[in-house]
Amino acid sequence: ISLANQIAAGEVIERPASVVKELVENCLDAKATEITVDIEQGGRRRIRVRDNGAGIPKDELALALSRHATSKISSLADLEAIQSLGFRGEALASISSVSRLTLTAKTQQQEQAWQAWVEGRDMQAELAPATHPDGTTVDVQDLFFNTPARRKFLRTDKTEFNHIDEVLRRIALARFDVRFNLVHNGKSVRQYQAVHSPESYLQRVSQVCGKTFTDTAVALEQQAGPVHLWGWVAPAQSCRHQADVQYFYVNGRMMRDRLLGHAVRQAYADTLGDDRVPTFVLYLQLPAQDVDVNVHPAKHEVRFHQARQIHDFVLQAIRQALQSAAV
Ligand code: ADP
Ligand code: MG
């Protein structure tokens, strides 16, 4: 089981930012409305994620840290097979197999918070009473302390921090209704306030993407049957800073898709010429049966059943928005 965990961890948990992604997604699954990511040394020393969500009942703490699925790998030879599978239900187990992990939680029904911890290969979770408000804190220390080969691939604190910052930006643009805080080495570095009405969404976009983007961005909204595209595109000549603002969400999930990327580039080229770097925050909603989203957690690919129509719809919508901004 330990071998399996460490192999799985290698697939999903590549760096501190992957830990943050998994932990924050768990907070969202638990219906948290406020999430604090508190890291030290770019997350290499410590990653602590706290939420005010549903918590984990005392008798489920140990289970949460174990792989729920029966192990799919019995030898390294099976490694190839596992690459095509997701690792659902395995994130905490994977992280705990390559770190010193403490899980503290309290549900509304419980009087008392409880804490469980595991360290590296020792998958036996210990339980102790603790102090914690309703919700969950996962504290991950010394990532890859027992896998030196992986630890070697970590970059500087600054680089690892930047990856975490980006993970949080992507999630924050998908969940306007949740408040996010990022603390680095004891200093609060990001605060994304929750916004609840579409008129206020631009405030969140501004906090996440910067005023340089929102000052020049134009709103876009187009509907074609059940397919809906909305968001913002910036027509201004881009500077390097702005070039990072390229976010496309399909049914709430951030995607880096060839087809969509092409449609966006084409729209910019048609309207403004080739020298513009597209900057955008866009949301495409369409019926779930019209799209296949790759289940691999590390991939951001999507397959549209009517690829041509989607491409042209996106192209036309962005073109129109950019043209209206130009007049
Ligand atoms: P998955 O999210 O795929 O179920 P994980 O390993 O990420 O697998 O988490 C295991 C389980 O631990 C979750 O299914 C959930 O029950 C519980 N859990 C993890 N994080 C939290 C959290 N922040 N709040 C509430 N429950 C959590
Ligand atoms: Mg999870």
UniProtKB/TrEMBL annotation:
It comes from the Bacteria. Keywords: DNA damage, DNA repair. GO terms for cellular component: mismatch repair complex. Residues 205-323 form the DNA mismatch repair protein S5 domain. One of its GO terms (biological process) is mismatch repair. GO terms for molecular function: ATP binding; ATP hydrolysis activity; ATP-dependent DNA damage sensor activity; mismatched DNA binding. The keyword DNA damage applies. This protein is involved in the repair of mismatches in DNA. It is required for dam-dependent methyl-directed DNA mismatch repair. May act as a 'molecular matchmaker', a protein that promotes the formation of a stable complex between two or more DNA-binding proteins in an ATP-dependent manner without itself being part of a final effector complex. Belongs to the DNA mismatch repair MutL/HexB family. This is DNA mismatch repair protein MutL. The gene is mutL.
